[in-house]
Amino acid sequence: MQNLKFFYSFTHILMLSLIAGVVNAEVSFGGYLAGRQALSTRDFDSASTYLLRALKSDLENPELLNGLISVQVSLGNIAEASKSADKLDLLGVQTQLSNMVKVATHLRNREFGRARDRIDNDQGINPLLDKIITGWAVAEEGNIEDAKLIFDKIGNGTSLAQFSQTQKASMLAAFGQYESALNTIEILEEDFNRLSIDARVMKVQLLLKLDRQEKAAEYFSKNFVDAISSDADKLKLQIENHPNALSSGTNLSLESGIAYAFYAIGDILKDEADPNTALLYVRLAQYLYQNSEKAILLAADLLEEMAQYDLAEAEYAKISSSSSYFLTSELGRVGALRDDGRIEAALEVLYFLSREYSDIGIVHNSLGDFLRREKRYSEAKTAYDRAIDIYREKNNITWVVLYARGITNERLDEWDKAEVDFRNALTIKPDQANILNYLGYSLIDRGEKLDEAMAMIQKAVSLQPESGYIVDSLAWGLFKLGKYEAAIPHMEKAAELMPVDPIVMDHLGDLYWAVGRQLEAKFQWRRALSFDPEPKDATRIREKLRVGLDRVLVSEGSKPTSELYANDN
After folding, report:
1. Which residues, including other chains, have CB under 8 Å from residue 100's CB and lie 6 or more apart?
2. First to last CA, the chain
3. What pLDDT score does 27 carry?
4. Residue 563 DSSP label
5. pLDDT value at position 34?
6. What does the pLDDT read at residue 371?
7. CA pair distance 171, 168, nearest whole angstrom
8. 177 within some domain
9. How many domains does the chain have?
10. Handedness of CA 243, 246, 247, 253 (dihedral sign)
């Protein structure tokens, strides 16, 4: 949605103001500088402490107040952020962030008129959200038809049409016009090949609200048939438990509808902007609708991305064990624990999930992935075996899990099983470059099926010509076949694509040695050592620097480069 790229990076603006702003001579420079440093590393708790300390020396410093608002919103302390925004108002200062907080506060208090007044007085958030909020405010005043026109104009002829029309349907549902809301979604469905998952969820909920359970079930079976998600699980329960399922947790209320606008923008911005910018929107979505489990999960994900693991875990902990989002939340918590270096704690959660959700493939798949990354291959294989059995029972196996088990089998020196997994994965996804590359490289390394192996790698390169790993495989395959001169340009390209990869530098050194460019070979080996290779690789590289590649190969029981598989003539 390119139209959303006009959003400002609030955190970037705030950082610039804190770094470049003129600090009052009476400000505590220690607190100021510490707050600035904490902001730069997204250490929100520390930043809050230091900025509050600095403000004690300069109560009316707008730069410090604006920085504090950013931190308070990032921490989810919107009530405190609103008080800080009030202080800016008293100073006659409005910033985009303080306006954002005050508008959200008015919406939370159902003061739609006051929110609209700020927007009308150029104290809004951004052009898109200001129009969305105005539409809701007009509807709250009782002018539903005027509100519909506002939403229609927002997305007319642009990529925002689905977003604005979904908001329009939310507005209509919030004010009890369920038939009109359903009609809006169905018109939208005619205009787009596929609705967003949130729009599809809303359609099912509207059908249930209109007591059309059979149609809801039929639509669900057609449009969520392959869905393995918390949204689908929750919706299935609502259909089965109708009519009591819609009493809470739906997106048909006024609060959830407005909050969704903030959430959706945060969800889009997470891929297009600084994660803290997205977090500001998501935190306000949580403030406006505290029951939004999707907003909780997105906030946790963004905090994890910013290495705020304790805060991320606190968000994940908000999801109840009875929620359909609990499994998603726990898998997210595993990621936060892993990234925080708490490997055994993460594994404890995964093993617990594998017992509690023993028939859910993704749980065992995730456990296998985790163990494989930790090089605990025997345990990983057991987990993958269980995942694959479940997927096959449910007829929804993917190439990814077969590829992952293939790698695991290869690391366990069970090559026959690994090759079967790789070939089965290719049956599902014949043009998957990573599978082609891994299988082709492994076959060449083993000296087996060389023509087929090179064809696989060449196909992988044609599919992903800018992948350094795959280009390296092509060059290394040619090297293993003794085609040194042909390999050099490919390896040099791989080195350009991955200039700090120790394996690529090591391989390039071997190639230079094979064609008699020994000084260049030693230079590349030394470069490889500078990029922190694995200990066993580093030992081998040092030995090559000491005695040369050929003597190392002979000591390993291999032929020297002059006698490898073929002549490059």
Report:
1. 10, 125, 280, 284
2. 53
3. 47
4. G
5. 66
6. 98
7. 5
8. no
9. 1
10. negative
Distance separating alpha carbons of residues 462 and 385, to the nearest angstrom: 32
Structure confidence at residue 351 (pLDDT) = 97
Q: Do 120 and 131 touch, CB atoms closer than 8 A?
A: no
Q: What is the pLDDT of residue 44?
A: 80
Query: Do the domain assignments include residue 261?
Result: no
Q: How many residues can be counted in the chain?
A: 569
Tally Cβ neighbours within 10 Å of residue 138.
21
Looking up tokens 């969520």 gives 224
Kindly write down the DSSP assignment for every residue of 447-513, as one continuous string: T-SHHHHHHHHHHHHHH-TT-HHHHHHHHHHHHHTT-HHHHHHHHHHHHHHSTT-HHHHHHHHHHHH
Q: Specify the pLDDT at position 429.
A: 97
Prediction pTM value: 0.81
Q: What's the pLDDT at 180? A: 94
pLDDT at 565: 44
Picking from 475, 495, 470, the residue whose alpha carbon sits closest to that of residue 485 is 475
Domain that holds residue 96: 1-111
**For the purposes of burial, counting CB atoms within 10 Å of the CB of 217, is it exposed (0-12), middle (13-18) or buried (19 or more)?**
middle
Amino acid type, 210: L
Residues of the chain with pLDDT under 50: 1-27, 227, 244-249, 565-569
CATH number at residue 80: 1.25.40
Structure tokens at 492: 């040099």
Q: What one-letter code names the amino acid at 127?
A: P
